[in-house]
């Protein structure tokens, strides 16, 4: 569920996931302004039927909540965290500091600039605290990386990923064929 931290009582679904599913992936963001960037990644998680939860856990505006959420994530049964933030993008790194789970960082392009600041803020972590960082606004790759991680212990998931690869290749080959005609 998507929970607006300014109004936690008002919950609306951003992912259309069945309520009864145990979330395996947490998708967290620094602000609800990041949500549009995350929607393509959420579509990937839905395509692979991955139960997930979507939350706002700002490293700056809700630091205590962010730390408690990341600290509890592993014991909640989550398997990985996708964390998106822009500008002074501290959320992915701070989440990684509070959890042993793999954290995938999505740099969000800020209003000013091309997003290089977000990218470097997320990937330039000190040794010992890794964040797997995708390119600016690339929530699709973040979600696909999460699928690959889950596929390590879920043969069905890995099979669906292999089917996705075949499907992707077929799409490109069809485009190539049309161009060559
Ligand atoms: C970051 O600041 C958020 O991740 C967002 O990308 C950026 C701007 O937030 P808003 O001012 O739009 O809420 O913490």
Explained architecture:
The chain has a 7-stranded mixed β-sheet, with helices on both faces. By secondary structure, the chain is α/β, with parallel strands linked by helices. Strand 1 (2-3) and strand 2 (11-12) form a beta hairpin. The chain has one domain (2-154): Rossmann fold, CATH 3.40.50.1970. The termini are far apart. The protein has helices spanning 35-47, 63-73, 91-97, 116-123, 139-151, 155-180; strands at 2-3, 11-12, 25-29, 52-56, 80-86, 103-108, 132-133. Helix 2 packs across helix 3 and helix 5 (139-151) packs across helix 6 (155-180). The radius of gyration is 17 Å and the shape is globular. The model is unreliable at 1-19 (pLDDT under 50). 43% of the residues lie in helices and 16% in strands. The structure holds 5-O-phosphono-beta-D-ribofuranose. 5-O-phosphono-beta-D-ribofuranose (RP5) is lined by residues 29-31, 33-34, 58, 60, 85-87, 108.
Features:
16% strand, 43% helix, 6 helices, alpha/beta, single chain, Rossmann fold, disordered N terminus, 181 residues, Phosphoribosylaminoimidazole carboxylase, 7-stranded mixed sheet
């Amino acid at each position: 569920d998507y929970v607006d931290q300014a109004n936690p009582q008002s919950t609306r679904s951003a992912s259309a996931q069945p309520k009864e599913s145990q979330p395996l992936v947490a998708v967290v963001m620094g602000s609800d302004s990041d949500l549009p960037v995350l929607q393509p990644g959420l579509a990937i998680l839905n395509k692979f039927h991955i139960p997930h939860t979507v939350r706002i856990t700002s490293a700056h505006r809700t630091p205590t909540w962010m730390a408690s959420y990341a600290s509890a994530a592993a014991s909640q049964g989550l398997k990985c965290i996708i964390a998106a933030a822009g500008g002074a993008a501290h959320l992915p790194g701070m989440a990684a500091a509070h959890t042993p789970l793999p954290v995938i960082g999505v740099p969000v392009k800020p209003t000013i600039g091309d997003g290089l600041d977000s990218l470097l803020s997320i990937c330039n972590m000190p040794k010992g605290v890794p964040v797997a960082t995708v390119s600016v606004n690339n929530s699709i790759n973040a979600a696909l990386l999460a699928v690959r991680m889950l596929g390590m212990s879920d043969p069905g998931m890995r099979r669906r990923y292999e089917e996705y690869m075949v499907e992707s290749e077929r799409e490109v080959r069809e485009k190539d064929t049309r161009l060559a005609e």
